[in-house]
Amino acid sequence: MRLYLCVTVTSRYNAPAPGQEIDAALLYPALARVVSAQPMLKVGISKQDTNEAAFCHVKAINLANHVSFKTLEASCETLDQYNDHIASQQGWHHSQAWLNIEDTPPWRVAVIKPSPTAPRALSNIQDIIFSFHHALLDGTSGKLFHERLLEELNHQLQQRPANTTNTTNTTSSLHFPDAPKLPEAQDQIVDFSNSPLYLAKALWNQLAPARLRGKKPVPWHSKPIDFSIPYVTLTKAVDFQGPVVAKLLKACRLHNTTITGLFHALTAASLCARLPAAKTSSFVATTPISLRPFLGPSADPEFKHSLRVLVTAHEHELPAPLIDHLRTSKSPDQDIWGIAQQVKQDLNTRLASLPRDDVGGLMKYNSDWLGFFHKKHGQPRPASWEVSNIGVFKTASGPGFTVSRMYFTNGAMVTGSPLSLGLASVSGGPLTVALSWQESVVDQALMDGLAGDLARSVTRFNDTGEFGAMG
């Protein structure tokens, strides 16, 4: 239905020495080992446009059909300009439909490097964009993919003879005559249970006539769900360096919250300052939650560290009185920290009750997903934004390639939040807050303003200890 095409996680790989780069001869053997060890990278999807969609066995994979190498033609005078090029490339990957996915597993790897005329500071870096169908993997798996790939690249680098590059006869064909054993679906290994009250409420909200359900306040959601709008995802990154991140983390601990909670609050403050009060009386924000800590005793230990989908989400209501106070407050920092604390408390409460009364436990009751989504056309979006945090990438410490930046984005969510923030960081290094949205659903000026507010407020906090007013 082209409602959500892929998730994308990009890592910046730093070469161990000038002239060493990730070429086909280095990448293909490393990638082959990653793919061979991960069942979800070896399957296609059959009947994807029906309610009988299923994973299917792909007997042969040609890595050349999944991998591309690109040298940017435009000259980049600064790192910021290069990052803008990466953001544009990332959005392009989000917007591409998957083709022939019955025979070709739906994932891509794109190796990007700066223009040959780029400054020396950019000469030893390459970005690898990993894009994948969300039915295969979740965002955390995207990070784990790069951790595995980094290990295999450095292993391959050790096997390469000294002073050798671009060797010929690079093998790109992989053969899997036997169907892989797949990780269990999350509803099979997470002990979801639904109380009668929760189940009754869920069914009532979905099936009862609108006139009987009562009128709920509609949070700001930019534009209603519209399947006719072309599916084009745009992305934009805001980077915060290691010392700034360390200061933010310390402040979050002092205020009993988290980086995730803080960026929910900063987003709320920015949108309050930039959107008319009449259209933004309330917000609803969403946080995805990893279900990896909630695997039941029946989970196969073989797949404990596999790339897969194990995720749910929680919604945070930011009602009109709270938003009014934030908008008119003379002490914005107090309100920002207050919202950040509320998000943390919401998540703690939800984590304590999981996997009871979760939407994941309701999916088995729906036999017509196509019809379920078709009915959403023209309806208000359920949430205002999403903050998804895939955590910290633990880069290599020894000789070889290292990773210095993570850039994680969700594709535009046609039936979900109009905008998304993807958070990812590198241990001891930068935190990248990646914005993504559907073109023409959210104004470019609003997203530029949000990015600017996040950058300025965090910089101000680093300098003065206060975030200050937005806008």
TrEMBL record:
Keywords carried by this UniProt record: Transferase
Entry keyword Transferase: yes
Chain intervals for the UniProt region annotation (Disordered): 158-178
GO molecular-function terms, A-Z: N-acetyltransferase activity
Gene3D superfamilies the record matches: Chloramphenicol acetyltransferase-like domain (3.30.559.10)
One of the Pfam families matching this protein, by short name: AATase
Protein name: Alcohol acetyltransferase
